[in-house]
């Protein structure tokens, strides 16, 4: 690749695969699957008004989301309660146990990320993370 850089999509795909591979054993140690973590992360800032809205946020088909919610609810990591305004809907929220699992996963992931980025000078790492956050905020 002399004089050329990879396309952004290719670079992000490579990094995503590497980070997912690095996160998988961390999540497994907490008995959490990747999609479980995605759902728990989405609920971290507050309850989802409906399962359909949660499915849209995590970009997972509702029919595929339900088994994930069932599994997380059976472990006491989230709750689904009828929406008082429309009892057909279920409000999905983290429980205190779910928040504790989420926090433990995130702490261990941050350690892995620090190791992953260790060879990048601190100033460049800071800029990289700031730009990545800005891009992420713009897209979702």
UniProtKB/TrEMBL annotation:
<protein>
    <submittedName>
        <fullName>DNA-binding MarR family transcriptional regulator</fullName>
    </submittedName>
</protein>
<dbReference type="GO" id="GO:0003677">
    <property type="term" value="F:DNA binding"/>
</dbReference>
<dbReference type="InterPro" id="IPR000835">
    <property type="entry name" value="HTH_MarR-typ"/>
</dbReference>
<dbReference type="GO" id="GO:0003700">
    <property type="term" value="F:DNA-binding transcription factor activity"/>
</dbReference>
<dbReference type="Pfam" id="PF01047">
    <property type="entry name" value="MarR"/>
</dbReference>
<dbReference type="GO" id="GO:0006950">
    <property type="term" value="P:response to stress"/>
</dbReference>
<feature type="domain" description="HTH marR-type">
    <location>
        <begin position="5"/>
        <end position="137"/>
    </location>
</feature>
<dbReference type="InterPro" id="IPR036388">
    <property type="entry name" value="WH-like_DNA-bd_sf"/>
</dbReference>
<dbReference type="InterPro" id="IPR039422">
    <property type="entry name" value="MarR/SlyA-like"/>
</dbReference>
<keyword id="KW-0238">DNA-binding</keyword>
<dbReference type="InterPro" id="IPR036390">
    <property type="entry name" value="WH_DNA-bd_sf"/>
</dbReference>
